[in-house]
Amino acid sequence: MYTRRHSIWPTLPPNVYLKRSTNWRPFPLDQTRCRIFSLARHAILNASKALHLGKGDVILVPAYHHGSEVEALMQAGLQVIYYEVNDELEPDSKELQTLLSPNVKALYIIHYLGFPQKASFWRQWCDERGLLLFEDAAQAFLAHHNGQPVGSFGHVGVFCLYKTYGIPDGGALISTIPPAAPQQNSGKGWWKVFKRHVNWIAARRGEIGAIHLLVKPIVSSFKRMTEHTHKEFEVGNPSTSPSTMTIRLLPKLLNKSTADRRRENYEFLLSHLGDMVPYPFSTLPEGACPFAFPVEVADAKEFLNRLHSRGVVGLLFWLNPHPSLLVADFPKSRDLREKMLALPVHQELTKADLKQIVKAVQECRIDSTARVATFS
């Protein structure tokens, strides 16, 4: 029997072209100061320059990060000093205080997996010390904190629109001093749109899903052989606008129900897999708009492979940090990278899809227990 395939990334229904564009514009798309670049890393670099940050200035950044944001900050001329996250994935104010110096100009926080940080607290903390606050809401578009949109508390807020909707690209920026709008066109975006359509079909047709599950590892292996180690952190041209297809499709995809659908999917998975979820994500706070569903396992890479064979394409979340990070100095962040998997939770998933994900995880968990018993 063929297996349907489900990925973290939101799929793109083929009927999207028949939909009418909505007039609804969630934050920050409803703001005149909003700028949309091809990628969030472009937004970060441009915001840094617009705020006159550069050589000699220091920004405090979490050790648990993707890496592209760090590269963008460095290319803007900033020096990065890392801090460790606490059990709630927040900064520790006492540790931050020890890192302060006259050269520290900004604090960078990340709203992990669409779960809001205590942004109002950190804005006040920064204001009291004369610092700028960068809010990385790349995974938290449509999320809220204290009834206010995530990304609206800081001097800078950045969002990855394509992590919420099945569009090719789109990095939105809101900044107290907005930079110039991007000038370089990133192209049509047809290939990425095609892949998102294929993902949608693979999630509904087992035979297509089976082909996808067979071909994807080959393509990924080829890319690892032909691309250098740190390609995923490359910034590219920071003045690149979103693709033509992103601009065309986004107004058709924006929907007030998106956050609710993601929350419902998260709650369903939580009700079945809650004992595997790491503490910061074990309950769904008000205002969260989940990007993915996290589970913590000891044999993460092997667990991913077993999930893949069952049609669930997870992600070992942020396995590779920026090369400037001394990994051994930040053990909590290292453990998160090595043990936390991210599973699909996006709004295109059906109840049947969610049940398939639950079943796959439970079967893989049994396999893991059996393997441990065999070798013990």
From TrEMBL:
<dbReference type="InterPro" id="IPR015422">
    <property type="entry name" value="PyrdxlP-dep_Trfase_small"/>
</dbReference>
<keyword id="KW-0663">Pyridoxal phosphate</keyword>
<dbReference type="Pfam" id="PF01041">
    <property type="entry name" value="DegT_DnrJ_EryC1"/>
</dbReference>
<protein>
    <submittedName>
        <fullName>Aminotransferase class V-fold PLP-dependent enzyme</fullName>
    </submittedName>
</protein>
<keyword id="KW-0032">Aminotransferase</keyword>
<dbReference type="InterPro" id="IPR000653">
    <property type="entry name" value="DegT/StrS_aminotransferase"/>
</dbReference>
<keyword id="KW-0808">Transferase</keyword>
<dbReference type="GO" id="GO:0008483">
    <property type="term" value="F:transaminase activity"/>
</dbReference>
<dbReference type="InterPro" id="IPR015424">
    <property type="entry name" value="PyrdxlP-dep_Trfase"/>
</dbReference>
<dbReference type="InterPro" id="IPR015421">
    <property type="entry name" value="PyrdxlP-dep_Trfase_major"/>
</dbReference>
<comment type="similarity">
    <text>Belongs to the DegT/DnrJ/EryC1 family.</text>
</comment>
